[in-house]
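Predict structure. Chain length: 184.
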Amino acid sequence: MNCIRFALPLITAGLLAACSSAPSTDGQGATVEDRSGGAASSGVDANRVVSVNADNKGGVANYPELTDSKSILSKRSVLFDYNSYVIKSEFGPLVEAHAKFLVAHPKMKMLIQGNTDERGSREYNLALGQKRADAVKKALSLLGVSESQLESVSLGEEKPSCSDSTETCWSANRRGDMLYSGEF
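Prediction complete.
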């Protein structure tokens, strides 16, 4: 019984080694990689391979309307009231414009970062920041943007846009920032 237990793995290893193919050589003993493109040799589906051009950076670089200061799409922050994650009506047109852009460009992705001011505990601010990011994400989804294009995260109080301890500064820090592919 013990012999069978030790012999079985050895026999299996021997059979596997006998079934494997020897690598191709160039006639001088050097191994040559098979680049014939056959599915059996590479395991890669040639129809799914995407060419990458070094000059084509993707993301916002291909869409000037995202960086043109005259375009509503260049504005990327939705501001919130104190202790709230309800999108103010004044930011409705901004969210709608970004939703239309994302629907028209289904390969673009957006990261929504929820932010808070410095008041409150770290845990509370992380939770509130997530609720703000999720509120923007839900609004975009309701306007037809695919869930696969959107991701929401909370930064809490870790990324302030202003560091003064004033109401003006705090209100600037209570926001959801929308970043497109290539910006995060």
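Summary: The mean pLDDT is 82.
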